[in-house]
């Protein structure tokens, strides 16, 4: 069961599961903690996992003040300190990987290692055009179902569209009791579109693994490669046949890979 945690004055909705080395899971655009269900279920026998709703997603309210990636990184650091976690393995997905980058730069003491899934250091022209389209799409789609069906074209593989997985995700999202508002979607999107760490990534010292999906349209492997090349010693892997969210589509594959990485980091001290 989840609960609200006061993280330096911000009421974040948090779910924790398992025992072992601490892992912090940071969600992407619009995603609540439920997006990490396969990790909360599949890795809890080896790790103590913490997932939370970013500002404006799920059960965490949207603030009146401006929303930014550095501010959300400060939230993540404040959450770990509120939970009395000295340092954690941090896994961030998409916009959550942007937050994870800033967390490692602004609060290196709380980051044991980094997994950056579907990540970008500096948005390129395609990324900026895509996010501009998403901004008006969420306002002008005929209804929420139509918006999700369109949005998910960038997110999941053709395989997931063909085998019914995307239909299931649409139904689960529509049934979720804490939907994200249009304003919250747009403000999170604007914060992620402004993300830029390219000239600072060389300061990250935490062991880092960058993962990209071969078929990812939103954050293709060429952008993940830039991140990995900019972080000293970072590993880079492309998951064949996968798109933007392999941690949901092929959770066993994703869980096994991050588990192996975290075991390597733990063994290295």
From TrEMBL:
<dbReference type="InterPro" id="IPR000073">
    <property type="entry name" value="AB_hydrolase_1"/>
</dbReference>
<feature type="domain" description="AB hydrolase-1">
    <location>
        <begin position="23"/>
        <end position="245"/>
    </location>
</feature>
<keyword id="KW-0575">Peroxidase</keyword>
<dbReference type="InterPro" id="IPR050471">
    <property type="entry name" value="AB_hydrolase"/>
</dbReference>
<protein>
    <submittedName>
        <fullName>Putative non-heme bromoperoxidase BpoC</fullName>
        <ecNumber>1.11.1.18</ecNumber>
    </submittedName>
</protein>
<dbReference type="InterPro" id="IPR029058">
    <property type="entry name" value="AB_hydrolase_fold"/>
</dbReference>
<dbReference type="GO" id="GO:0019806">
    <property type="term" value="F:bromide peroxidase activity"/>
</dbReference>
<dbReference type="Pfam" id="PF00561">
    <property type="entry name" value="Abhydrolase_1"/>
</dbReference>
<keyword id="KW-0560">Oxidoreductase</keyword>
